[in-house]
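Try this one yourself first.
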């Protein structure tokens, strides 16, 4: 039995085949819906069901019980069980269409024994517009794609990354180790819908773990010097003090803001650490027990994001103002 899906904002309609997801049907009908991982782990394709019902073959990892109770669904996994009317994500700021270009390696340097700073130089004639928080695919030999968030704000031809080295990894531990300045690498960009939403007009909470700091850094740097910037609170969770690879630089960011807070949180701190301990999401709740007026950006490990979403929604956070970039490995 066919079901009809209508987008509230545009009145676009399309039919969904039995056991077909809303996203698959939308793509077949050339209706644009934001999406990324397509297996329910990132939450990029979140929609709100205004009328009708949907179900899932398996509960998606990126949709909390609280979000589902509020009527939210993930288009990449949702199976209509009636005609439905859905509200899709709000329009994003314009950016360039994804394209593949050849970049040149500018530099590689270690930030920690496990994290590399990688800078690439894009072609001189490339007119690129991207949103702070987006990611790119670096194409390895054979065309295999490796996704990395941009750690730099949109500015000129240089793009930066913070890449965690995976021991034995074909790209992060082998390919990068062999690359020399000036060497070419194909890059697909810009990609993703994780980005700053200035239309929210809310105090901003940014919570990251590990190299999830990269897109957060891009967002924060894009806000520096903006007279309309709301209060910004950055919580960065890592294991040990040695993992705080941008600690000194971040401590200077407050000079660029009227209201900026930085809270590093260590989960495996030694006895010399005088700062916060535990999990980054718990530190947020200790400081901000009522999150109902905040816009929240989460980036990093899937476990942190899943736990943070549950806890933050229980503390009043608006699911419509909660944005996620989960560092998942697709099976």
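Now uncover the answer:
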């Amino acid at each position: 039995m066919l079901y009809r899906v209508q987008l509230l904002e545009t009145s676009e309609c399309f039919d969904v085949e039995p056991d077909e997801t809303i996203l698959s049907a939308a793509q077949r009908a050339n209706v644009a819906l934001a999406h990324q991982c397509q297996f329910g782990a990132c939450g990029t394709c979140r929609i709100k069901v205004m009328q009708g019902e949907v179900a899932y073959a398996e509960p998606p990892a990126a949709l909390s019980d609280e979000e589902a109770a509020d009527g939210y669904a993930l288009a990449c996994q949702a199976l209509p069980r009636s005609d439905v009317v859905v509200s899709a994500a709000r329009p994003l700021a314009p950016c360039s269409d994804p394209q593949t270009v050849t970049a040149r390696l500018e530099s590689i340097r270690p930030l920690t024994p496990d994290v590399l700073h990688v800078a690439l130089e894009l072609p001189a004639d490339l007119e690129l517009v991207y949103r702070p928080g987006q990611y790119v695919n670096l194409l390895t030999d054979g065309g295999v794609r490796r996704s990395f968030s941009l750690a730099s704000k949109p500015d000129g031809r240089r793009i930066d990354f913070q890449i965690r080295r995976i021991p034995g990894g074909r790209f992060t531990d082998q390919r990068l180790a062999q690359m020399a300045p000036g060497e070419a690498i194909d890059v697909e960009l810009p990609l993703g819908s994780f980005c700053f939403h200035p239309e929210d007009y809310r105090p901003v909470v940014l919570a990251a773990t590990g190299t999830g700091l990269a897109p957060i850094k891009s967002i924060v740097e894009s806000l520096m010097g903006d007279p309309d910037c709301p209060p910004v609170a950055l919580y960065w969770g890592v294991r040990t003090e040695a993992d705080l690879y941008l600690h000194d630089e971040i401590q200077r960011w407050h000079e660029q803001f009227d209201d900026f807070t930085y809270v590093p949180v260590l989960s495996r701190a030694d006895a010399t650490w005088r700062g916060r301990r535990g999990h980054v999401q718990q530190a947020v709740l200790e400081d901000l027990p009522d999150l109902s007026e905040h816009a929240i950006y989460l980036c990093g490990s899937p476990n942190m994001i899943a736990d943070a979403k549950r806890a933050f929604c229980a503390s009043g956070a608006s699911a419509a103002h909660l944005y996620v970039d989960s560092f998942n490995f697709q099976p």
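Discussion: The chain has three domains: 3-87, 99-191, 198-326. Residues 302-314 form the longest helix (13 residues).
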